Each structure stands twice: as structure tokens, then as C-alpha cells.
Prior knowledge:
GO terms for molecular function: disulfide oxidoreductase activity. The protein is α+β, with helices and mostly antiparallel strands. The protein has two domains: 98 residues, no CATH class; 174 residues, 3-Layer(aba) Sandwich (Glutaredoxin). The protein has 13 helices and five strands. It has a five-stranded mixed β-sheet with strand order 1-3-2-4-5. Helix 3 packs parallel to helix 5. The N terminus is likely disordered.
Amino acid sequence: MFIFAVQACDHLLIQIGIKNELIHSLLLLQDYIVKKLSLIAAAVSAVLFVVAIPTKAAPLTPQQQDNLVKIQTILEQKPELIDGLLTSLNMYIDQENKTAVTLKKYHDWLYNNPDLAAFGTDNPKLTIINFTDFNCPYCKRLDPVLQRLTEENPEVRVVNIFVPLQQREVAGIDTNSAQYALNVWKNDPDGYMKVHDYLIRKNGRHDKSSLERVAQVTKTQMLLDASNTLKPTIDKSYQIFSELGLNGTPAMLIGDQILPGYLPYDQLKPIVEDALDKVADKTT
């Protein structure tokens, strides 16, 4: 159970505080292991060196302190888990480093790309990058949450990165939902949100008839034809998605966090507000 939680650390760390808290926990864990399990102290020190721990870490919350006590208890009872824990932490650190490089490399493409469909303000203080798929049920659930957040926070913009994992081709038609949406965004940006909303509301996957119905209702039939100029955008979306270590939609970039999976409004709202506060702090 514990090892699974560590290996799924993207979601776990989001829930318990991310980075600084992990580092603080590692410091406390090192101290515990040195005292109780001296044989593995060198291994722990190696991990801490790789993390490049700062001298000051954010204080742990009561929940994190409780979690740390549970970890200590588990390690005391089952010291054989330690090697797996260190391996998992090393894997996490390696992926974090790769993610930082990838985000820096593609920052301009993600945040300043007029070819990517978006909604919300044109002059955002905070941009949410949303890796999404019109055929993904959890993406369909997340979309109204994001729209609500942009309505409540006029300084927020959502950029949709279409990653049609579940349907790259549609039988009987030379396009798919992602290509169609991008074609509308490029050629009829004022009509995009209407098309977007129809595409996201459909239960299940799209097919030829569902795409044609959306096009008919929104009077965008001419934009159903696939455009070869859209393929590089879709291909680049897949590439960045993969390089970030993501393997499913939805997934969001908010501030310095990667949030894999669906989050309901009550959980996502404080994350967005915290990111906005950090932006405000940087500008003061």
C-alpha cells in the first residue's frame, strides 16, 4: 500500500503538499533511519544529495506529520521496504528533473501559441494548460469545472492541448474531434466555444454522425474537412504529453504543479486560488 502510494507520487504529493514537504519529510526520515536503521543511512544520504535539499524546508502540516509517523512505523516493522522506497524516490526525482527541462523547453509553445484553442481572458495572470480529449469521460467532467473557474476568476485562461488518445481516426470521415476543433479555432475563433461545448457534452465517443451533427448545428460544415496544417500541432501535443511523463487525460499544468486526472471543483478551486496568490506575490 505504501509503496504504491510512493510510485503514484504525482497525485500523492499534490494532496500532501509537494516538493518542500517531501524534502522536509526526507530530512526527518533520514534522521529516523540513522538512529533506528544505521545500515541504510548511506543510501538515504545519497538520495538526499540527489534531491539537493535546501537548508530551509516548509514546516509540515499536522496531516503530514501524522503521515510521517505512519511511515516510520511501517519502516520499523518492515525495513525491507526501504530499498523500494529509495528506488521510488529516485525515480520520482529523475522524472521531476526531466519535467522541469521539458517545461522550460516548450514553455513558449504551450503558453504563447495562437494555434492552441483556449477560453477565458486574453490577458491572464494565470494560465492553466489542460491536456484533454473530447472522447475522454473524465475530460468531459473536468471541462465545466474549468469553465466555472474562468468565470469566477476573470484573470484565468485555460489553454486546451488536444491529445486524442482514444480516437485518432473516425470511420467514414477524414478528421477527428481534435482536428475539427482546432480547425474551427483557426478559421472561426468566435464560433469555437459553441463547437467546443457540443463536442464536450456528448456522452461516449464521437463518430461520423455526431461530428456532422455538431457541424450542422454550429454551421461549421466546411471546417469538418481535415487540414494538413493541423497535424504538426497534434503531433507536437503528443510529443510534449509524452515527454512530461503523462499517460492519460485529463492532466493539467497549474503554476508549478502537474495535476494528473480529474479533480472536482472543490479540490481544484483552492489550487487555482493558491497559484493566483503566488503570481500576485511575485509581482509585489
